[in-house]
TrEMBL record:
<dbReference type="InterPro" id="IPR008969">
    <property type="entry name" value="CarboxyPept-like_regulatory"/>
</dbReference>
<dbReference type="Pfam" id="PF13715">
    <property type="entry name" value="CarbopepD_reg_2"/>
</dbReference>
<keyword id="KW-0675">Receptor</keyword>
<feature type="domain" description="TonB-dependent receptor-like beta-barrel">
    <location>
        <begin position="300"/>
        <end position="753"/>
    </location>
</feature>
<keyword id="KW-0472">Membrane</keyword>
<keyword id="KW-0998">Cell outer membrane</keyword>
<feature type="domain" description="TonB-dependent receptor plug">
    <location>
        <begin position="115"/>
        <end position="222"/>
    </location>
</feature>
<keyword id="KW-0798">TonB box</keyword>
<keyword id="KW-0406">Ion transport</keyword>
<dbReference type="InterPro" id="IPR037066">
    <property type="entry name" value="Plug_dom_sf"/>
</dbReference>
<feature type="signal peptide">
    <location>
        <begin position="1"/>
        <end position="19"/>
    </location>
</feature>
<dbReference type="InterPro" id="IPR000531">
    <property type="entry name" value="Beta-barrel_TonB"/>
</dbReference>
<dbReference type="InterPro" id="IPR036942">
    <property type="entry name" value="Beta-barrel_TonB_sf"/>
</dbReference>
<keyword id="KW-0408">Iron</keyword>
<keyword id="KW-1134">Transmembrane beta strand</keyword>
<keyword id="KW-0410">Iron transport</keyword>
<keyword id="KW-0813">Transport</keyword>
Length: 795
């Protein structure tokens, strides 16, 4: 019998020796986030691979035996796994984040991790590249929960904007490498000033609600934290080009040296984007560059970023009159109309340049303590030029001119409204991590803004005895913003306990006269305390979390200038309750989040714009937003994936008073609303991306977006609203390579494939005429079916 077994084993030995098995698995961070691009290598061999977008990997055709796997990823400790292989094995590998990261310089204090009890969405470089075809930055975020994106010009180039949970850009806090980008006075962020920034972005985190403590104005709807490109060890050159409908063309060149001498790297980008726009005379001419140099040492690292953007856009910020759209002319742009000739002024343009300088420094002070700091400076300057019909001299401080015995008091004229500003400061974070269970961050910032607003008359039709370029108004503004915060995370078993306390002090003053020669000298001293607490419980592939946060937000410049010191707008207060559940596995992941945002003195949009397209707001005593956000990822089959999200919400104003001017009585009539919808806050938003990869390196994606009815003011009046819309896009992509070329990418984005007629934004100016409410609604129509083709080549 013994001899028989020996003979059988001898016969089977060649079969066993030729048997082949696989090692597969998933790479996560310690919080359960999938890590794309992690390197998995078998020691003492040439066998290796990298993890895909979901963190999964496969090593196939391995013979039985003992192997040592090394798993590495930038910013994480390398993990080693010893495997005895006699059958197929699947591993779950969790990497531990380094306290000090040698590969990148980034302010770490603003981002949330998988276990932080904050509602967020992460977008990685691969996600960004798929949608970076030439449209504005906000379109990268269009498929994130609760987001509504719009374009003034209708085709995605030029002035673009985003609302998250119904909140506009003035209460969405935007940072780049932890440095605030929002304008200190208007509090908005304008991606048109930094065209093609997407080509220099490594990752984006969108936090909804108050979120974590950040630098800059408090987040009332969301915060968007951008990290620009990080270290690449090999030299590269990349040419990215797009062309499509309405004369849209984008050209981008990216270059990098890779790591030089083990310590230095240099990267650069040069871009230009032009478009005629869907709306008439809504052209854009955009240019930008991004330069970055870094030094990597054993215990410290230094990076200098210099980037700039210049935009020249024909003004399209007023929208199109509703009656004009419904009459079949949705592209009509009345801005720049010259009444005397019936033509249009050809230089009714906005012109602005913005230069950014960032010096980022990281230092490992010990094995438990690191420092991240930055110095920054932003220089902005520019103007918009406009034609004014039959302007009154008295509005410009001019005295009437007597010609032939007749006093001339009015004239057509061309004016320029200038802005020249400086924004500079410092940010810092100390991170103390004595062990894997405790983490504490102490951070803060001091920023200072100085801005000159001055206005000129460039030409008058009638003689006024003033020279060209006559300055008729000037206003200087200064704002200092100081904040300090402490954040702690403590892990106890499956629980993570979270606390975050922030103090913020603001000193804002401005003097002189506005463009209408009104004295607007005011000063505001504000102190805010913003506490945040929460907890997360993790089990298996899931966690549940709950948090409570307080946010305070100051009025912006227009809120002040549209008032007097006696009727000064109040600061806003927000109490934000969030609770949710997260689940993540290879083939399915989901997040369900509930929110209740209770406002005191919220500054809500009235629906009207001032004479330069800026929204007019008013304080409301009590209002709230309450809803549920759901986002999922389903791998239906190996090549078919479905990403979907939906938000159902109630957004209500209590006891809103609307005053309408009555032309019949020359008075204002009051209408009271006990409970109504907050303007620009749809009750239902949904997004869907169905992605199919029929063959390797090929993708076909069908992308959908639904937005329910949006009211243009706070009265829930259907005649002053934007109808619901459902828009579908198709995205095609194919990548290949050959000798000497690392990658060639071909893409085609077909927007609005079914030519849905819709408006994503608007404004309203109701009044009373002949005893009847008359609505003057302006809409921003979006383009019917249009396309952008892309060609990307990387050497």
């Amino acid at each position: 019998m013994k001899n028989l077994f020996t003979a059988l084993f001898a016969l089977l030995l060649p079969v066993l020796a030729s048997a082949q098995f696989s090692i597969s698995g998933k790479v996560n961070d310690s919080y359960g986030n999938a890590l794309q691009g992690a390197t998995i290598r078998i020691e003492n061999s040439t066998i290796g691979t990298t993890s895909d977008t979901d963190g999964n990997f496969n090593l196939n055709n391995l013979r039985p035996g003992k192997y040592s796997l090394k798993v590495s990823f930038i910013g994480f400790e390398t993990e080693q796994k010893n495997v005895s292989l006699s059958a197929n094995i699947r591993l779950n590998i969790a990497l531990t984040e380094m306290l000090f990261t040698e590969e990148q310089v980034v302010i770490t204090g603003v981002n949330a991790s998988y276990k932080t009890p904050v509602t967020f969405t992460n977008l990685h470089k691969a996600d960004i590249a798929k949608n970076n075809s030439g449209r504005g930055f906000e379109y990268l975020l269009e498929q994130t929960p609760s987001a509504v994106v719009s374009s003034n010009a209708g085709a995605g180039v030029g002035y673009t904007g985003i609302r998250i949970r119904g909140s506009d850009g003035t209460r969405i806090n935007l940072t780049v490498n932890g440095i605030p980008i929002n304008d200190a006075e208007s509090q908005g962020s304008f991606s048109v000033n930094l065209p093609d920034l997407a080509s220099s972005i490594n990752s984006i985190q969108v936090q909804r609600g108050v979120g974590t403590s950040t630098n800059g104005a408090g987040a009332f709807g969301a915060s968007i934290n951008i990290q620009t490109n990080t270290r690449q060890d090999t030299a590269y050159t990349e040419l990215n080009n797009s062309a499509g409908s309405y004369g849209t063309v984008k050209n981008t060149v990216n270059m990098g040296t890779g790591l030089l001498g083990g310590h230095f790297s240099f990267d650069g980008r040069l871009s230009r984007t032009v478009s005629d726009g869907y709306i008439e005379r809504a052209s854009s001419n955009l240019r930008s560059f991004f330069l970055s140099g870094a030094y990597y040492g054993k215990n410290d690292q230094l990076r200098l970023n210099v980037f700039s953007g210049h935009e020249k856009t024909y003004q399209a910020w007023n929208g199109v009159l509703e009656e004009t759209v419904t009459a079949g002319n949705p592209r009509y742009n009345e801005v720049g109309y010259i009444a005397k000739t019936g033509g249009f002024y050809d230089n009714q343009t906005d012109n602005y340049t913005q230069n950014h300088y960032q010096l980022l420094y990281d230092r490992k002070l010990s094995d438990k303590l690191t420092f991240n700091g930055a110095l920054h400076y932003t220089r902005g300057y520019g103007y918009y030029e406009e034609y004014k019909n039959d302007a009154k001299f008295s509005n410009y401080g001019l005295t009437p001119v007597v010609i032939g015995g007749v006093a001339i008091t009015n004239s057509d004229l061309v004016r320029q409204l200038w802005l020249s500003n400086h924004f500079y400061g410092t940010t810092y974070n100390f991170t103390y991590k004595p062990n894997q269970r405790v983490k504490f961050i102490l951070g803060g910032a001091y920023n200072e803004y100085k801005g000159d607003h001055y206005d000129k008359i460039m030409w008058t039709q009638q003689s006024t005895n003033i020279p060209p370029g006559y300055e008729y108004a000037r206003d200087f503004a200064k704002k200092t913003d100081f904040n300090v915060f402490g954040r702690s995370e403590v892990t106890l078993g499956g629980f993570l306990l979270y606390g975050d306390l922030q103090y913020r002090h603001i000193n804002y003053s401005f003097l002189g006269f506005d463009r209408n020669l009104n004295n607007v000298q005011q000063q505001a001293l504000l102190d805010f305390f913003n506490p945040k607490v929460g907890a997360t419980y993790s089990f298996g592939n899931s966690n549940v979390y709950a948090s409570f946060a307080v946010g305070n937000h100051e009025p912006n410049r227009n809120d002040f200038t549209n008032s007097t010191p006696a009727s000064r707008p109040k600061s806003e207060n927000l109490k934000d309750f969030e609770a949710g559940y997260r689940f993540d596995s290879r083939n399915f992941s989901a997040t369900v989040n509930g929110f209740y945002m209770l406002y005191k003195n919220q500054l809500v949009l009235t629906g009207s714009l001032n004479d330069v397209g800026a929204a007019i707001r008013t304080n409301i005593d009590d209002s709230y937003r309450a809803g549920v956000e759901v986002s999922t990822r389903v791998r239906i089959a190996g090549q078919l994936t479905w990403l979907a999200n939906a938000t159902v919400s109630a957004n209500k104003v209590k006891n809103f008073n609307q005053y309408l001017y009555n032309y019949d009585t020359d008075t204002y009539d009051l209408t009271r609303y006990t409970k109504s919808d907050i303007a620009y806050s749809p009750a239902f938003i949904a997004g869907s991306t169905i992605s199919y990869k029929p063959i390797k390196n090929t993708e076909i994606a069908f992308i959908s977006k639904y937005v329910s009815r949006q009211y243009l003011d706070n009265t829930s009046t259907k005649s002053r609203s934007l109808a619901a819309y459902f828009v579908n896009d198709v995205r095609l992509a194919y990548n290949f390579k050959f000798a000497g070329v690392k990658n060639i990418g071909l893409g085609l984005l077909i927007n609005n494939v079914f030519s849905e007629k819709y408006q994503s934004d608007g404004a309203t100016y109701p009044d009373i005429e002949s005893g009847v409410v008359k609505n003057y609604n302006y809409w921003f129509p979006q383009a019917p079916i249009n396309f952008l083709g892309t060609l990307n080549v990387r050497f």
